C-alpha cells in the first residue's frame, strides 16, 4: 500500500513539474522510482506516462506545432530509440544501470545549469546540430527516460515563443515514446504489475499536468526548475551511493 502511495506521489509531482515547465517528468521520476521498482519497469512506466502528459499538452498547443521542423531531429531520435531498445532489453535489470542513471541524472542537472548560462546562438540551423541532439537524446531517453533536456535545449533555441517551444517539444515526446512503447510491446516487456502501476500513474499524471499547465501561464519557470534540479541531483547521488 505504501509503495503505491509513494509511486503515486512521485508521478504526480513529476507531471506537475512537466506541465509547468515543459519537461522534468522523467528527470524527477527516474531519480526516485528505481528505489521501489526495477530499473526496466521504471523506464517503461515513465515513457508510457510521458506519452499521456505530452499528448495532453500537444493537443492544447496544437496550432503551434511545426511538422517540417520536427522531421530532421526526430528521424535521428528514432534511430537512437532503436539502439536504446536493445541496450535496455539486455542490460535493463543489471545494477550497473542504476549507477549509470545516477551519473546521467547528475550530468543532466549540470547540463541544464550550464545551458542556461549560454546566450542564444544560431548554430541550430546547421544540419549536424539537430542530428546529434536527436541521436544522443533518443538513446538516453530510451534507456533512462531522461532525454528531454537535449530536446528542451534545441527547441528553446529554435523558438522564442513559449507556446511553440512547448508544442513542438511535446509533439516530439509523443512520437518518440509511442515508437519505443510499440517496440517493447512487441517484445512482450509489459507485465500485469506494470498495467496496475500504469493505471495508477495515469490518474496521477493527468491531475498533475492539469495543475502544472495553470502554473505554466502564471509562475516563473526558474523556481520550478531550481527545485526540480535539486531533487534530481539528490536522487542521482542517492542512486550512486546506495544502489
From TrEMBL:
The chain crosses the membrane at residues 43-59, 71-90, 96-114, 135-157, 169-187, 194-212, 224-242. It comes from the Bacteria. Keywords: Cell membrane, Membrane, Transmembrane, Transmembrane helix, Transport. Pfam families: TauE. The keyword Phosphoprotein does not apply. It is found in: Cell membrane. GO terms for cellular component: plasma membrane. It is a multi-pass membrane protein. The keyword Membrane applies. InterPro entries: TM_pro_TauE-like, TSUP. Its main location: membrane. Belongs to the 4-toluene sulfonate uptake permease (TSUP) (TC 2.A.102) family. This is Probable membrane transporter protein. It comes from Geobacillus thermodenitrificans (strain NG80-2).
Amino acid at each position: 500500500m505504501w509503495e503505491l502511495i509513494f509511486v503515486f506521489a512521485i508521478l504526480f509531482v513529476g507531471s506537475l513539474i512537466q506541465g509547468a515547465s515543459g519537461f522534468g517528468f522523467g528527470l524527477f521520476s527516474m531519480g526516485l522510482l528505481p528505489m521501489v521498482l526495477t530499473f526496466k519497469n521504471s523506464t517503461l512506466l515513465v515513457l508510457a506516462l510521458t506519452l499521456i502528459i505530452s499528448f495532453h499538452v500537444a493537443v492544447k498547443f496544437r496550432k503551434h506545432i511545426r511538422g517540417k521542423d520536427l522531421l530532421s531531429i526526430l528521424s535521428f531520435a528514432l534511430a537512437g530509440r532503436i539502439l536504446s531498445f536493445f541496450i535496455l532489453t539486455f542490460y535493463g535489470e543489471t545494477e550497473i544501470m542504476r549507477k549509470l542513471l545516477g551519473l546521467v541524472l547528475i550530468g543532466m542537472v549540470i547540463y541544464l545549469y550550464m545551458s542556461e548560462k549560454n546566450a542564444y546562438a544560431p548554430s541550430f540551423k546547421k544540419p549536424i546540430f539537430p542530428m546529434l541532439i536527436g541521436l544522443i537524446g533518443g538513446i538516453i531517453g530510451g534507456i533512462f527516460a531522461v532525454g528531454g533536456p537535449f530536446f528542451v535545449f534545441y527547441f528553446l533555441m529554435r523558438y522564442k515563443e513559449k507556446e511553440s517551444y512547448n508544442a513542438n517539444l511535446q509533439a516530439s515526446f509523443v512520437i518518440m515514446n509511442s515508437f519505443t512503447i510499440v517496440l517493447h510491446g512487441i517484445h512482450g516487456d509489459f507485465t500485469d504489475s506494470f498495467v496496475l502501476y500504469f493505471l495508477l500513474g495515469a490518474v496521477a499524471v493527468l491531475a498533475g499536468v492539469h495543475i502544472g499547465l495553470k502554473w505554466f501561464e502564471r509562475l516563473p519557470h526558474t523556481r520550478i526548475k531550481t527545485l526540480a534540479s535539486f531533487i534530481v541531483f539528490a536522487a542521482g547521488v542517492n542512486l550512486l551511493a546506495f544502489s
